[in-house]
Amino acid sequence: MDRNDPNVDFAVTFDTKVAPFQKINKLLKTLVKAYPSAGLGLMCWLSLAGQAHERTALGSMECIYADEQGNMKFEVLVVEGLCNARKVMHGSAMALVFDICSSASMVAISRPGYWAIDHRRDKEGDAQFVGVSRNLNVTAIRPAVVGSTVIVQVRPMHVGARNALLECEMKEKDTGKLVSYGTHDMVNPGGMARERAARAKL
Questions:
Q1: How far is CA 75 from CA 57, 185, 201, in A?
Q2: Exposed site from 62, 73, 95, 175, fewest CB < 10 Å?
Q3: 112-118-119 Cα angle (round to 5)
Q4: What domains can you pick out in the chain, each with its CATH number?
């Protein structure tokens, strides 16, 4: 991927032959390894501290369910790197976790020519998924304390050629109580480019 392109906020290569469950866990491990180098963050340009924060989130989560429709569940360990001084998950960390999980959901949905840039391929010939965040809303309901485990569930509410809306819930693993709720509105730059090209021909 081009880590110097400020117009891309989520770009990963993936193998369309593997199951979504394996694809997402491979993605998480790949991104964790990529973070020692400076450059483009997973979702936006970040300070070095922000990159460390994001790497902490990636390293503390595991995909436990995924299907081709983008429905997913992640298990996330609430580590100190995601918490504030009161030892509960920081609101920004909740947003970060939702951002990662919902973007990963779009990886499972994507295919070359549909939320994946067909002309940008890696050495193995796999297309690259590219999506940008337009709006991310998070409502915190109860604290997630350090050392606990939460389950993050992602459900795509709408996925079109240009736009996608995903719903996220974070719940306590032990009790099932809701910790936070969020929605992620994403845009497909490739779809927008195709529409501009089509309009130009009219």
A1: 11, 22, 47
A2: 175
A3: 170
A4: 11-200 (3.10.129.10)
| Number of Cβ atoms within 10 Å of the Cβ of 71 | 16
Helices and strands counted in the chain (H then E): 4, 9
| Backbone torsion region of residue 128, taken as left when φ is above 0, otherwise alpha when ψ lies between -120 and 50, otherwise beta | beta
pTM recorded for the entire structure: 0.74
3-state secondary structure 42-70: CCCCCCHHHHHHHHHHHHCEEEEEECCCC
HEC-encoded secondary structure of 132-176: EEEEEEEEECCCCECCCEEEEEEEEEEECCCEEEEEEEEEECCCC
User: pLDDT digits over 141-191, tens only?
Assistant: 999 999 999 999 999 999 998 999 999 999 999 999 999 999 999 999 876
